[in-house]
Amino acid sequence: MNIPSDLKYAASHEWLKDDGTVGISDFAQDQLGDVVYVELPEVGREVKAGETVAVVESVKTASDIYSPASGTIVAVNEALGSAPEQVNGEPYGDGWLFKLDVTEEGGDLMDAAAYEAANG
Amino acid sequence: MTNLDETGALRRTPLHAAHLRAGARMVPFGGWDMPVQYAGVKAEHAAVRESAGMFDVSHMGEFRVTGPDAEAFLQYVTTNDLSKLRPGRAQYNWLPGETGGLVDDIYIYRVSADEFFMVVNASNIAKDWAHLTRQAAKYSAVLTDESDQWGLIAVQGPKAADLLQLHADTDLIARKKNSFFSAHLFGLPVWLARTGYTGEDGFEVFVAAEQAEEMWNQLLSAGLIPAGLGARDTLRLEAGFPLYGHEFSDSIHPLSSTYTWVVKDKQHLGREHIDLAPSQKLIGLTLDKVPVREGYPVQLDGQVVGHITSGSLSPTLGYPVAMALVNVQSADAEAYGVEVRGKLHEARRVALPFYKKADV
């Protein structure tokens, strides 16, 4: 399982980068299986940590994505509209979901070691 | 994301260890711990459409019915015409409910004049057994639950027959659809049925539970791709096959589905309910992008007229497909709205099945 050390992780499997970029972990994409559709939030929307902001759909199921931080959505990964499988292939790269102007991180975020311990 | 894991006391098929060795992701399904996928749903789905895959369906139930009244008993508790079923042939059939709906949809195999074998859905084994034993009391027929004695592996795909033929002691290629016969496969005694639930050619392999793992390993070595419940569901959805618990239930009128041919004009249990016109009809829908799931409301002219019963992205077609039960009077529209997380998305009605093998 790939768990980059420069990211923070929510118990619900989203990751947060210092620059506000959010995606789902390698563990989460593997559990979901083939991702076929991603519903992204609107740019400009204000969100609270723990709020449902996106939906990732695999062949079998739809999974809510929760924001790991409070803030404003400043960008979304439009490329996922035509290439949702990037969430599987590059969960920490081209498969990112949205970018936040973070005002406050969620209280339950873990570092890589803690996230690995929780899901190992 | 949440709910990635579920645990509990679940039953295991004779192939459970083989699934874990193959790296399967296991999920609870109808009280069983079953593989949902190995390499991935899309890859497994494609293997069955283009080559050949295999599924563990040992969780399904097997009952045997014998005795001088076996045919009369089964003729009464099912809707299809068993009197036309010859030994060595298989027939898709329904168990109508006493108060409407279906108890189950099943396959019946005729072994001889007074012996039948049937396969029932895993989640309905206890219900079917109670229903059938209650009805059998009036007949000179003996029911036996052999569900724990059998492993069942479905080998499906355009190359299934050729692959199995290399390891069989009888001519498989020449067998017609719905044939049912005993044979040896990899030297192991089996019963084979040229049936399946994917829209492809193939065989269902009945093997003694204690030999199921050896059979599975032999099939793996022969090049068959293991496929899980995920691919089984997308394959059957593309083929327009209704699934109990989704398109059928104790409360859904059986003639709502497109499978009205399963009801023949004969006296059978629950006929008075089936004779009533259904208030709903099962339709096929396609969408541009958004997959729609079971339970999503279907709208026409601003009114909810039904709901999705099964839906997914079709791996073969590349766009979302779904089946929906809608009110009969709203079933002929060309387009509907499906509500997805509060937003309405256009869905077009298409004839079922979504996918049909060219020579079926």
UniProtKB/TrEMBL annotation, chain A:
<comment type="similarity">
    <text>Belongs to the GcvH family.</text>
</comment>
<dbReference type="GO" id="GO:0019464">
    <property type="term" value="P:glycine decarboxylation via glycine cleavage system"/>
</dbReference>
<dbReference type="InterPro" id="IPR002930">
    <property type="entry name" value="GCV_H"/>
</dbReference>
<dbReference type="GO" id="GO:0005960">
    <property type="term" value="C:glycine cleavage complex"/>
</dbReference>
<dbReference type="GO" id="GO:0005829">
    <property type="term" value="C:cytosol"/>
</dbReference>
<dbReference type="InterPro" id="IPR017453">
    <property type="entry name" value="GCV_H_sub"/>
</dbReference>
<dbReference type="InterPro" id="IPR000089">
    <property type="entry name" value="Biotin_lipoyl"/>
</dbReference>
<dbReference type="InterPro" id="IPR033753">
    <property type="entry name" value="GCV_H/Fam206"/>
</dbReference>
<comment type="subunit">
    <text>The glycine cleavage system is composed of four proteins: P, T, L and H.</text>
</comment>
<feature type="modified residue" description="N6-lipoyllysine">
    <location>
        <position position="60"/>
    </location>
</feature>
<dbReference type="Pfam" id="PF01597">
    <property type="entry name" value="GCV_H"/>
</dbReference>
<comment type="function">
    <text>The glycine cleavage system catalyzes the degradation of glycine. The H protein shuttles the methylamine group of glycine from the P protein to the T protein.</text>
</comment>
<dbReference type="InterPro" id="IPR011053">
    <property type="entry name" value="Single_hybrid_motif"/>
</dbReference>
<protein>
    <recommendedName>
        <fullName>Glycine cleavage system H protein</fullName>
    </recommendedName>
</protein>
<feature type="domain" description="Lipoyl-binding">
    <location>
        <begin position="19"/>
        <end position="101"/>
    </location>
</feature>
<dbReference type="GO" id="GO:0009249">
    <property type="term" value="P:protein lipoylation"/>
</dbReference>
<keyword id="KW-0450">Lipoyl</keyword>
<dbReference type="InterPro" id="IPR003016">
    <property type="entry name" value="2-oxoA_DH_lipoyl-BS"/>
</dbReference>
Automatic annotation (TrEMBL), chain B:
<dbReference type="GO" id="GO:0032259">
    <property type="term" value="P:methylation"/>
</dbReference>
<dbReference type="GO" id="GO:0008168">
    <property type="term" value="F:methyltransferase activity"/>
</dbReference>
<dbReference type="InterPro" id="IPR028896">
    <property type="entry name" value="GcvT/YgfZ/DmdA"/>
</dbReference>
<keyword id="KW-0489">Methyltransferase</keyword>
<comment type="subunit">
    <text>The glycine cleavage system is composed of four proteins: P, T, L and H.</text>
</comment>
<dbReference type="InterPro" id="IPR006222">
    <property type="entry name" value="GCVT_N"/>
</dbReference>
<keyword id="KW-0808">Transferase</keyword>
<dbReference type="GO" id="GO:0005960">
    <property type="term" value="C:glycine cleavage complex"/>
</dbReference>
<dbReference type="GO" id="GO:0005829">
    <property type="term" value="C:cytosol"/>
</dbReference>
<dbReference type="Pfam" id="PF08669">
    <property type="entry name" value="GCV_T_C"/>
</dbReference>
<dbReference type="InterPro" id="IPR006223">
    <property type="entry name" value="GcvT"/>
</dbReference>
<dbReference type="GO" id="GO:0008483">
    <property type="term" value="F:transaminase activity"/>
</dbReference>
<dbReference type="Pfam" id="PF01571">
    <property type="entry name" value="GCV_T"/>
</dbReference>
<dbReference type="InterPro" id="IPR022903">
    <property type="entry name" value="GcvT_bac"/>
</dbReference>
<dbReference type="InterPro" id="IPR027266">
    <property type="entry name" value="TrmE/GcvT-like"/>
</dbReference>
<dbReference type="GO" id="GO:0004047">
    <property type="term" value="F:aminomethyltransferase activity"/>
</dbReference>
<feature type="domain" description="GCVT N-terminal">
    <location>
        <begin position="15"/>
        <end position="265"/>
    </location>
</feature>
<dbReference type="InterPro" id="IPR029043">
    <property type="entry name" value="GcvT/YgfZ_C"/>
</dbReference>
<feature type="binding site">
    <location>
        <position position="204"/>
    </location>
    <ligand>
        <name>substrate</name>
    </ligand>
</feature>
<protein>
    <recommendedName>
        <fullName>Aminomethyltransferase</fullName>
        <ecNumber>2.1.2.10</ecNumber>
    </recommendedName>
</protein>
<comment type="similarity">
    <text>Belongs to the GcvT family.</text>
</comment>
<dbReference type="InterPro" id="IPR013977">
    <property type="entry name" value="GcvT_C"/>
</dbReference>
